[in-house]
């Protein structure tokens, strides 16, 4: 319920600024491609034909709308506020990532690009990109850190089955940030025929804006579904934050609903105090990485530091610039959950609801369990269950000492 | 005017092309850098571009990435690079030096603090790969107050209109990137570069234009130079740094630069 005297939220600026954050910090070679993408995106966002085609694709191919599910046994387990799960795990390919890749692949087709590239951490974005590439008959290469290739082997094989080439990245920490460097290098080289599908609300303008808008279907549906089920909006939204796309997708349509609290959950890794985590909004400083000015994890001389999380999709030293802006504005609060607590929540959701969450999403569930216990039963918490956990079975089994 | 302006005036008066040479500070180890810089000058380099190591060099190819990794293995920081600069300047007051890097280390030190220390160390300008003209205003202001240049880049994908805008924002010289891609990936295509440079030089309105990326030796330098005010050689020198015993690096670099200088003359 926007109060009448408040100016509705509007960001970014034409230059891609979210307050002090965002912008376009890339090599000059890419500016032309970013300008072209921005122009196209602005035109299709007002084009009813494009919007109708996208909606159709989301319905028939992705399987939207996803349910908003009242998790009664999870609620009982937490002992407090009523918990709803937005079931992005039920999307085709098993996570929210495909909402964005379907949209961006349509943009790529309009630009006449014949090749798609992507970076991936957990492999969900890589799978979602390989999937739309197969669907449209486009060539596809996915960059992935060699450490992530080892811990997300199921998704690596899925991408290969889909006809994509997975390119291992051995530089730096061999995780998502290094994969993103390599994808940028590819794009600089092949910009004429290639579209780079960035998988989160990160990167140079217009990516944070367009990925947010493609993911906003999550929040639009959830808002309507909550009104239908409860006759009112939720009290609190919760989502995990890696780059921040599932979180921004849920949060953005609620930005002007002042009564709705918003919490993003970062990866606490081995604990914030150890320094071995992936929580730039909690423990980082503003800087520039991968095309935008945002919170990131660096040392006192400005080198980006290695991050740690049991969840490959959250193991990233930066975060989308709009989250940095919301943190400073106070529109959202950002907390963290460590590996152990996320793993515990993974088990709880399996055993109370018969739902296996991705380890990324388990961070959101874990913080919700804590918070729900502190709130009265009348309160409604809406959690984004960003993906399913099949891809993580090896990791969890390994922790249990079981070989599968 | 910084040393860059003076150097380009002298070169123009002599009818010579500028040879700009790039190495990574701290590669393969910190004590090599200052002797290596002097060797570049002895070989005939007119300018030095000193790379500031950064953990995520997203526009570099494998050769320069490896050089940066060798430097980072010694934890070389921007502050260390400025110390190397001061040491170089105690023996060379004339050769212009431009630092080349990525924005975050400069941002972390703070624009004002960096500019103060850099001016003191005898730095003449900087090139920041991931700082396009639109984002450069604040940093440029701080640099100009200390009489240092912000060198901007123009790419094959840059429109003529935008090249003029970039040239107007930059100073020192204009860096034309010869191909779409990362450093060291391939040879510069002299015909394609020549075609484009007519337009870029018109847009530059007298600002010297140097061509970099894909210039590896005397032959490739001589092919490009007639169309520009000078050339930049990087990956080929960094390659030498990676495969030469530290004690032999200055002599090897000097000979390598000499071969290119001779081909340009
Ligand atoms: C299921 C799932 N959730 C969340 C994320 C984190 O990304 P983001 O913060 O952009 O939603 C990933 C990334 O791989 C993911 O696979």
- Tally of extended strands of chain A? 14
Q: What would the average pLDDT of chain B be, to the nearest integer? A: 97
Count of helical stretches of chain A: 16
* Principal-axis shape of chain B: globular
Secondary-structure-based class of chain B equals alpha/beta
Order of helices and strands of chain A: EEHHEHEHEHEHHEHEHHEHEHEEHEHHEH
Describe the structure.
The complex is a heterodimer of chains A (404) and B (265). The longest helix of chain A is centred in the last third of the chain and has 16 residues, at 359-374. In chain A, the strands form 3 sheets. In chain A, strands 3-4-14-9-10-13 form a 6-stranded mixed sheet, sandwiched between helices. In chain A, strands 1-2-12-11 form a 4-stranded antiparallel sheet. Chain A starts with 16 loop residues before the first strand and ends in a 5-residue tail after the last helix. In chain A, helix 5 packs parallel to helix 7 (153-161) and helix 9 (207-215) packs across helix 11. Chain A is globular and about 55 Å long. In chain A, a hairpin with a 1-residue loop joins strand 11 (285-289) and strand 12 (291-296). Chain A has 16 helices and 14 strands. Chain A is 43% helix and 18% strand. Chain A is of the alpha/beta class and 404 residues long. Chain B is built from 12 helices and 8 strands. Helices cover 49% and strands 15% of the residues of chain B. Chain B has an 8-stranded parallel beta barrel with strand order 1-2-3-4-5-6-7-8, surrounded by 8 helices. Chain B has 265 residues and is an alpha/beta fold. The mean pLDDT of chain B is 97. In chain B, helix 2 crosses helix 4 (78-89) and helix 10 runs parallel beside helix 12. Chains A and B meet through strand 2, helix 1, helix 8 and strand 11 of A and helix 3, helix 5 and strand 5 of B. Bound molecules: pyridoxal-5'-phosphate. Pyridoxal-5'-phosphate is lined by residues 95, 121-122, 124-125, 200, 240-247, 313-314, 358, 360-361, 386-387 of chain A.
